Amino acid sequence: MKRQATQGDTVKVHYTGKLENGTVFDSSRRKKPLEFTLGKTTIITGFEQAILGMQAGESKTVKILADNAYGPHLPELVSTVKKSQFPVHIEPELGQQLEIRHPEGPTIMVTITHMDQEEVTLDANHPLAGQDLIFDIELLEIL
After folding, report:
1. What is d(CA 61, CA 134) in angstroms, rounded to the nearest whole number?
2. What DSSP assignment string belongs to the chain?
């Protein structure tokens, strides 16, 4: 019997991630396989849980609820600022991702989600927050 993937194993997988409407948001199929160690929390919880118990060569499709993916979309991570507050060398564009330094510490990534003539809406949620995700997973190898 083939060995099953367990906590602490390093695995190689190919995956395709889709939204519920079928839109593909990421895939390893045209790149190198994703390699990581189960239990190191370097990937979303639901993805890791889906691989536990799989055998090399096995494929499956799983639905990962938002809470086990990138979490809920938190309204408190959305803010509106005046365009005049942007540095002169940055011309804001819808969908643009920016790194900003939080006054009390780390740099955070934000996405411009709305703009008008005077204001820009910045969203610090992960772009996939609040969404259930569907992954086609193929476990290539347990190292």
Report:
1. 7
2. -PPBP-TT-EEEEEEEEEETTS-EEEESTTSPPEEEETTS--S-HHHHHHHTT-BTT-EEEEEE-GGGTT----GGGEEEEEGGGS-TT----TT-EEEEE-TTS-EEEEEEEEE-SSEEEEE-S-TTTT--EEEEEEEEEE-
Amino acid occupying residue 63 = K
Around Cβ 38, how many Cβ atoms within 10 Å?
19
Pair 58, 51: CB distance under 8 Å: no
User: Domains (ranges, CATH) in the chain?
Assistant: 10-71+128-142 (3.10.50.40), 75-123 (2.40.10.330)
Phi, psi of 84 (to 5 degrees): -65, -15
Angle at CA of residue 24, ends 90 and 60, nearest 5°: 140
pTM exceeds 0.70, yes or no? yes
Q: Write out pLDDT tens, residues 30-82.
A: 999 999 999 998 899 999 999 999 999 999 999 999 999 999 999 999 999 99
Q: CA 69 to CA 102: how far, in whole Å? A: 24
